[in-house]
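Let's practice the habit of predicting before peeking. Look at the sequence and jot down your guess about where helices and strands might fall. Then scroll down.
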Amino acid sequence: MVLREAPSIEPRGRSRTPDADGDTSGARRAEARIFAGSTPARLTALAVALALVVLAAGAITMREVGGRQDTLHSLLADAEPLAYSAQRLYSALSVADAAAATAFLARGLEPTDVRANYSNAIAIASGEIVFASSGLAEGDATSRELLATVSEGLSVYTGLVETARANNRSGNPVGTSYLGSASAQMQTRILPAAQALHERQQERIAQIQRSYSSAPWLAISVPAAALLLLVAAQVFLAVRTRRRFTPALVVTTVATAVLLVWLMGAGLLSAVAAARAHAQGAGPLSELTAARISAQQARADETLGLVRRDGEDAYDADFDRLTADIGRLLAEYGEDGTRTVAIEEVDRASAAFSGWLDAHHRIREQLSTGQFQPAVDIATGPGPADSSATFDQLDSALGDAIEAARQTGRDSIGSASNALTALSGGAIVLTSVGVAGIVVGIWPRLREYR
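Done guessing? Here is the structure:
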């Protein structure tokens, strides 16, 4: 009989020795390395990478579009109205100064319409000061200081004008001195501050438009990179699986290409509209506003020269300088000029401007022969060829041209925003289609390796 050795029995709960456990861990690591280099692992990594880059393309597109629309909304709702308010303030102050000087040419009680023009201009200026004070940014200390200068100076100005008016009605010659002091306050303190405020707001709009005009390179580069990666992935799959194409990944590629083309097309249309807003809106508005204010200041020089009657040539020299600037600008914007904004309104302004210069020439002719009262009659008379009527026509036409330029700018900004309206929603849809296409396209290839 042959005796056999009984097999050894390990204690319950211990099936392997520590060395065996170490061998198992090493085996697992080896298996992991083998799997990491396998085709299924590469397909999984490829699917994750494709999904991430497609999601990134959609997210960056939505962020860029949202940021640009917020910029346009801020421009349309905040920056542009504030700049327009500063323009109206600047213009109203000039109107008030011109009207106050014109009123003085009538000894005693000034004409009702002239007084109404002055009162209306002061009311507009006061309202725009309130509006601007509520719209300025908290950190814009310079603009707030300028607005405070205008507000304080306007209180002093109106007080001087009322004192001058009271003396003028009483026939006191000292009224002319008060009027001169009021006009000096306006010309040397109030109007420069109002002009600086207007220029700051215009520069704010220009900065926004310049930043907007830059291309969204990040938003373009990420979808472009996603598109290239998708093409490379399909080439890889064609080599590995010996298939020409995967329909679902083709859908993803098309969706990404549509997103990229849509982004570039909508961005281009929006940028063109924003550039048009500056070229045909903000730029002309600023120049036409300067022309209108120059006209109002020239009108004040015309009337102050008559009021003072001191033979000072400074008013005539300033009138000639201002009207020369107006003439050059109207020539640029007229029917035969290089600008194409508010041509109809500018042509009306040009005709009125010519009539006003003719009336002013007649005033100078009367003064050259010592005929003061006929010169005053031309300056303030109701006739259609008199200085007052022709200047009113010029001011009205320039005001209409300013409104036309402003509306053109606002319409163009609206068009720039509308070009981007559907892109955010489209990016969500196209990104969802793209991710789904990746899953549907890669999953069958993974199942083949089970």
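How did you do? The CA atoms of residues 82 and 134 lie 10 Å apart.
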